[in-house]
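Its record is retained below.
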Amino acid sequence: MQEFEEKTKEDLIKEIGEYSKIIKNLRQQLAKVEKTGDESKEKFGVRLPRKGLETNLEMVGDFDILYGTGEDYSKGGMSFKIPIELEFEIRFDVDGKAQDKRAKLIWVKYIKEEGYKFGVEFIESSEEKGEEF
């Protein structure tokens, strides 16, 4: 049986106050994550189901020279934004069947020692509308 230390009412009230601050901080962090999370939930009402995939792919971008605006910089780097969507032609295999899709870049994340992870949204052509993936 676990023994509990004797605490006064004041000690317990203080401890509850500390836990309340921790919980508030965690809720704020969670709100930030939810705010910047998967946009498909807002766009489609639910997060679209994902399927695991291990395949090579080819991407060909539609862009030449890009113009943007700098946000901030330091000795080590800078952030900037561009006012256009980056669109690609993308080819990959699913269950041995080649998939040719048009997609636009939604997010990029750098993962140390692995490289960059991209999130793209497929742009449906008129003949694809209503097709199951």
Observations:
- The first strand starts at residue 57 and ends at 61.
